[in-house]
Amino acid sequence: VVEGYMDTISLHKAGFTMTVASMGTALTQNQAKMIKRFADKVYICYDGDSAGQNATLRGLDILKENGLDVMVVQLPDKYDPDDVIKAQGREGYLKILDESLPLVEFKLKYLKSKYDKVVETPDYLYAIGDIPIALVAHMDTVFKHPAREVFYDRQQNVIWSPDGLGADDRAGVFAIIQIIKKGLRPHIIFTTDEESGAWGATALSKEQCPFEDLRYVIELDRRGSNDCVFYDCENLEFTEYVESFGFVEAIGSFSDICMICEEWGIAGVNLSIGYRDEHSTSEVLFVGQMLNTID
User: Counting CB atoms within 10 angstroms of each CB, which of 44, 237, 274, 283 has the fewest?
Assistant: First the structure.
């Protein structure tokens, strides 16, 4: 999938006949649905400038929501596919295709491009920002395989999958990426193995807190639309501030910040991110509720 008709023509001439253009950078749900009728795997190849890269992030999520296996083609800065074909020919473009990144790896690369210091281990990843709040999400789900089919109900504004959506985990990661795209740079924590005992968070919590100015921790991993579950919080001002956005305090369960807040002595809260019926093939994600929490 490329941006414009000149890219499409050049790639067709070079033998890449399964190329289509979204005609601009605003890939739509309908376009993704049409692509899904013809293929299960898609390479998204927008221009290498900043507008193209931001459009790639938007397109990735739309394609993924529609059950496509997404790969991201990394073009040289300020190049478009037509430029690559003219400069390097078919073989040069094939080489770039071979170096394409899966969705998760591309998003991690994007994160690293926005932060000066990113530390990655097998158990966790954190990025040091310039806002004294850490946003937390975990990258594992209870499902062994990614969903092959994902459906979006436009009337109900919900996403679901017969394979199990895993939105109780993926929605938090998506939300953090969206917040970064708005130009904000909070501290970021991504963990592994939360579903099997918060092993990633446990490993991180044993280390000295890497954020010198950290005041609060916010996890995006709670079901529903307006729950807020506080951990190790005796700060009434923080509680009242969170509730001023319409969140209502609820009783929570085990999550990553159980470990992090206790070990670091930091107040934390887990906010609703819009999913229901988690850990099952009946799970749904209410998109509007997720976007309200992001805002």
Answer: 237
> Distance between CA 120 and CA 62 in Å, rounded?
27
User: Cα–Cα distance between 25 and 47 in angstroms, integer?
Assistant: 9
pLDDT tens digits, one per residue of 194-249: 888 889 999 999 999 999 999 999 999 999 999 999 987 788 889 999 999 999 99
Asked if residue 290 lies in contact with residue 226, where contact means CB atoms within 8 angstroms, the answer is no
pLDDT digits (tens, 9 = 90+) for 18-70: 999 988 666 777 888 899 999 989 999 887 665 556 666 667 777 877 778 88
Structure tokens at 236: 């009434």
